[in-house]
Design goal:
Strand content of chain A: 25-35%
Number of helices of chain B: 2
Oligomer: heterodimer
Low-confidence stretches of chain A: none
CATH topology of chain B: Translation Initiation Factor IF3
Distance between the termini of chain B: 25 Å
Distance between the termini of chain A: 93 Å
Order of helices and strands of chain B: EEHEHEE
Number of strands of chain B: 5
Largest sheet of chain B: 4 strands, mixed
Mean pLDDT of chain A: 84
Helix content of chain A: 40-55%
CATH topology of chain A: Translation Initiation Factor IF3
Order of helices and strands of chain A: HEHHEE
Largest sheet of chain A: 3 strands, antiparallel
CATH architecture of chain A: 2-Layer Sandwich
Chain lengths: 163, 109
């Protein structure tokens, strides 16, 4: 009886530690994601009056006072739970919902930062917006996705009413 | 120096095309940031250290592109594009390119 208990404890630690990390990551990841989405929705409402388009056409009825390049970027990383879930999912294929929400968060955040910069510099509109995504670091071992950079850039313009 | 990612600078007239200009920079992550990012890997979300690093690197790539355009005698760069490529584990290349042009203010008709 006494011989087996150190092995039992060791075994428990070996299984328990990853399990604990997964559960911890699941809970904190979920809380952080919810909070982030809430703040994204809030800020999107705040910036509603600053239109952002991926069209090249300028507003014809207004005078252009200035134009300059604006960027916004963000690096997002996946959490331990998401990587674990995705690792399982790659066995059977299909949607990786965990990563979908991660990249959606990243894109919306990047666009918001673009808008923030544009507003700070006095723009009234951002045209020809492009979104670029690149994976900047590979995960260790089999886990192929660790973090990704998303950059949004476009031409900010300041318009004035034609008189 | 005026920059834009449209084909012309709004409100300006392109008088001369000079040609393609580019700037790049390759950055490696540093250990301090990597350790922090390692912790962040457990809970996920934004990796602020990397965001700063890449924003800074992109600024430098843009600076180099601007320098090249200035030596060529341009006063604006149009159709600017950004690209990123990973060259090896733990290092990324940031790359900016565009067309150098000279522009002049449009006279109001």
């Amino acid at each position: 009886m006494n011989d087996s208990s150190p092995e039992l404890i060791e075994g428990l630690i070996q299984i328990g530690l990853p399990l604990f990390l997964i559960i911890l990551a699941k809970i904190t990841g979920m809380i952080l994601e919810k909070a982030h989405f809430r703040s994204i929705v809030e800020r999107e409402a705040e910036f509603q009056d600053l239109p952002v388009t991926n069209l090249k056409t300028l507003p014809q009825d207004q005078e252009i006072e200035g134009a300059w390049l604006c960027t916004g970027s963000v690096v997002v990383g996946s959490d331990y739970f998401k990587r674990f879930a995705a690792g399982l999912k790659t066995l059977i294929g299909g949607r990786l919902r965990a990563f979908e929400t991660l990249l959606e968060r990243g894109r919306r955040e990047a666009i918001l930062r673009l808008k923030e910069e544009a507003r700070r510099q006095g723009a009234t509109m951002v045209i020809n917006v492009r979104l670029e995504t690149s994976s900047i670091s590979q995960g260790r071992g089999k886990q192929t996705f660790a973090s990704s950079e998303i950059v949004a850039y476009g031409t900010a313009i300041r318009t004035a009413e034609k008189n | 120096m005026l920059l834009s990612n449209t084909e012309m600078i709004p409100g300006f007239r392109t008088v001369r095309h000079i040609g393609l200009v580019q700037g790049n920079t390759i950055r490696a992550k540093n250990i301090g940031r990597d350790i922090l990012a390692g912790f962040k890997n457990i809970v996920g979300g934004e990796l602020k250290g990397y965001t700063e690093l890449l924003t800074e690197a992109r600024k430098e790539a843009t600076e180099r592109m601007i320098q090249q355009a200035q030596t060529a005698g341009a006063n604006a760069i149009v159709n600017v594009r950004f690209a990123t490529s990973s060259i090896m584990q733990g290092a990324a290349e940031l790359f900016a390119y565009g067309t150098a042009v000279t522009v002049e203010q449009e006279t109001q008709a």
